[in-house]
Amino acid sequence: MFDGPLSASAYELLGVAPSATDDDLRRAYRLRLRQTHPDTGGDATMFVRVQRAWEMVGTPQARSAYDRGRTGHSWAASSATPGATGTRPRGRSFGQAGAWRRSRYRELLAAELGHPVTDAAAYDPLVVRAASWEARRMLADALAEEATAAAVDELGIGFTAWHDVALGDDEADKLDHVVLAPSGLYGLLSEDFGAPVRFRQGEVIGVGDAAPIAALLSRMRRVARSARVRFGGGILILPDDALDDAVTPLGGIRGVPVVVVRRSALRLVLRTGVPGARVLGGNEAFDVRSRLIHSVRVLVP
User: Fold this and answer.
1) Which residues contact 270 (CB under 8 A, 6 or more apart)?
2) I need a labelling partner for 11 at 20 to 30 A (CA). Which of 22, 25, 26, 197 fits?
């Protein structure tokens, strides 16, 4: 099951309210099975999700555990300082991933509620679920960016990352991450659409008007021109449940190799490199790092 601000709860997938009786829940499950069964014209992916939802709430014991987990879940930002724990040297990083989107989420939520909100209220699952799609999308993307930054930070001192890279005067106009790895220089986009994704002709489809691959490549080109560097590849990172495969190569798009990866596979991809990406030599990597340090501007939360 997805576990983000945009993801449907088990109750939503079954089409009932959280207060539904066990009998109503059982009837709804049987109805949803008939509606989504592939043999009757339903969607196979949704059919599986309905079954998994039932596993979460289909018995009193499972339902009780699920409800406790939902009310106890928190999406609040961690108070830990990046790199402050553990004994392994961390990679060097600039900027604070997810900070701009968290700030925007709080602003949208306060406008919708008509008053400022505390941290405890802003990240309460019930408040999050009741927020608008735009607000929940902001929080989902902030969490995705933070997860990517944490994964890159764990790779060690051979990696340098820039998070929330500003592209212009509009703070919303940004590239989520730039990562300089021993395997090459990459532009990264962290997303969470709250559902599985599909691909067609080098783009993600089924996510409304979004065109994340095109957006990623456009933003990478602007950073490349400004810093006078050349990217080796682009990486779109999605939640594990959104993808059938750990790594989905999309091939060369406008001359740039692009892959879509599960969040759990990102570290491996950065270590081994994007297929087809140009590997930087030692002297070139030093020069690229210097150019990026002197030219890249990150958003300040």
Assistant:
1) 152, 155, 159, 179, 181, 183, 186, 235
2) 197
